[in-house]
C-alpha cells in the first residue's frame, strides 16, 4: 500500500523534472467554482466530481484537475511562451468503479506557445516520454481534431452537426446519433406519436419543471425539423467508421488517413497537421516508426482536448487507468479567455500509479 507521504514525495520529484525543463511552479486552490466547470462540461460532471455549497462562494467543487484553473490563471497574463508545472491532490468520484482511487496526486506540465502547434506538441510529448522512459510504459497517441474534421465534412444540417460535435467525447451517444441520422435506428414510437400530434401540449396538464411551455414547443419544432431531414448517406457513415477504426503505428496510420482523405477532402488539413507533428517528434528523437496511433483514443476521458492526445499505459494491464495523459486544448483557452485563444498543450502524470508499478526509477 502506497502511503500519502510516498505519493507526495514522488509527485515533488516529478515536478522538479518539469522545473528543469523551464516550467514555472504554480499552485491552485483545492476548492474551485462549480459554475465554470458546469459551463464547460454540463451537468454530467456532477456524477464525477465532489460538489458542495459554500455560504460565501456558492456552489464549489473539490479540484477535479489542474488544467482549468491553470488556463484561467494564464489567460489573465497572456504571457507567451509560458510553461507551468504543478503537483497536488485531485478528487474524482468513482461510483462505477469503487476500486479506483477517488483522491490522488497529479503532476502536470502545460505549454502555452504561439509557435508551430506541431513543434509544441512534439516538445510536450518528448518531455513526458523522457521522464517516463525508465518505467517501460506503452505510449499511444491520437488526434481528436481528425474526427472533428471528418464530422465537419458531413452533408447534414447544422443542428445535426452540432449534436455530433457535442458528443464526440461520448462514443455511445455519438454512435447512437449516427445510427439515428443514417436510419439504422428507427425513432422511438413515443417520438413518432409526439411528432404526429397536431397539438402535443393540448392535454399535457400543468407545466412542471424548469422548462417553460415555449421552450418545450421550440424543442418539439426542432424534433420535427430533424425528422423532416433525409437520412445521412450510408457511405458517409462508413467513412466516419473507417476513420475511427484507424489503429496502427504512426507511418501506416498516416498513409491510411491520406487514403481516406481522397474521399473526404475536408480531412486533409488535419492529416497534414498529424504529418507535421510526426516530423517534429522524429526531430526530437522520438521513434515515430514504432509509436502507436489510434484515431479514437482519448474520446472517453479527455473532454477538453480538441487536437493531439497521448497516453502512457502499463503494458498488459488494460484494466488500469493511464499512468499519464495529455494533449492539445486550444478551444478550452478560447472559452475561458472569453474569445481570446492561447494555443496550449500539456499533460499530467499520476505518481501513485508509478509507485504501484514498483517504485521510482
Describe this structure as you would to a colleague:
The chain has two domains: 231 residues, Bira Bifunctional Protein, Domain 2 (BirA Bifunctional Protein, domain 2), CATH 3.30.930; 78 residues, no CATH class. Helices cover 44% and strands 17% of the residues. It contains 14 helices and twelve strands. The strands form two sheets. A nine-stranded mixed beta sheet has the order 1-5-6-12-11-10-7-9-8, sandwiched between helices. A three-stranded antiparallel beta sheet has the order 2-4-3. Strand 3 and strand 4 form a beta hairpin. The model has no long low-confidence stretch (mean pLDDT 87). GO terms for molecular function: glycosyltransferase activity; histidine-tRNA ligase activity. One of its GO terms (cellular component) is cytoplasm.
Amino acid at each position: 500500500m502506497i502511503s500519502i507521504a510516498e505519493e507526495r514525495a514522488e509527485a515533488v520529484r516529478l515536478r522538479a523534472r518539469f522545473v528543469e525543463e523551464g516550467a514555472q511552479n504554480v499552485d491552485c486552490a483545492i476548492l474551485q467554482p462549480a459554475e465554470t466547470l458546469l459551463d464547460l462540461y454540463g451537468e454530467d460532471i456532477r456524477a464525477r466530481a465532489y460538489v458542495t455549497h459554500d455560504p460565501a462562494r456558492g456552489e464549489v467543487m473539490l479540484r477535479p484537475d489542474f488544467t482549468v484553473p491553470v488556463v484561467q490563471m494564464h489567460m489573465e497574463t497572456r504571457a507567451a511562451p509560458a510553461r507551468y508545472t504543478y503537483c497536488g491532490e485531485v478528487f474524482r468520484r468513482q461510483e462505477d468503479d469503487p476500486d479506483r482511487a477517488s483522491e490522488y496526486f497529479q503532476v502536470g506540465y502545460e505549454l502555452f506557445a504561439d509557435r508551430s502547434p506541431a513543434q509544441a506538441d512534439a516538445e510536450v510529448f518528448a518531455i513526458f516520454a523522457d521522464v517516463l522512459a525508465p518505467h517501460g510504459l506503452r505510449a499511444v497517441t491520437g488526434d481528436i481534431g481528425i474526427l472533428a474534421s471528418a464530422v465537419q465534412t458531413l452533408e447534414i444540417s447544422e443542428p445535426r452537426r452540432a449534436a455530433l460535435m457535442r458528443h464526440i467525447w461520448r462514443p455511445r451517444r455519438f454512435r447512437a446519433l449516427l445510427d439515428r441520422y443514417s436510419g439504422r435506428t428507427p425513432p422511438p414510437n413515443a417520438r413518432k406519436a409526439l411528432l404526429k400530434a397536431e397539438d402535443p401540449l393540448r392535454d399535457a396538464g400543468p407545466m412542471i419543471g424548469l422548462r417553460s411551455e415555449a421552450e418545450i414547443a421550440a424543442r418539439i419544432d426542432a424534433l420535427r425539423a430533424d425528422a423532416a431531414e433525409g437520412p445521412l448517406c450510408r457511405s458517409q457513415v462508413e467513412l466516419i467508421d473507417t476513420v475511427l477504426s484507424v489503429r496502427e503505428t504512426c507511418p501506416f496510420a498516416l498513409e491510411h488517413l491520406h487514403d481516406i482523405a481522397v474521399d473526404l477532402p475536408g480531412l486533409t488539413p488535419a492529416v497534414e497537421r498529424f504529418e507535421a507533428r510526426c516530423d517534429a517528434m522524429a526531430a526530437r528523437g522520438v521513434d515515430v516508426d514504432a509509436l502507436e496511433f489510434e484515431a479514437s483514443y482519448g474520446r472517453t476521458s479527455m473532454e477538453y482536448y480538441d487536437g493531439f492526445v497521448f497516453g502512457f499505459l502499463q503494458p498488459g494491464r488494460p484494466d488500469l487507468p493511464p499512468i499519464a495523459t495529455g494533449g492539445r486544448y486550444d478551444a478550452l483557452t478560447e472559452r475561458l479567455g472569453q474569445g481570446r485563444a492561447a494555443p496550449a498543450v500539456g499533460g499530467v502524470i499520476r505518481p501513485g500509479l508509478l509507485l504501484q508499478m514498483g517504485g521510482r526509477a
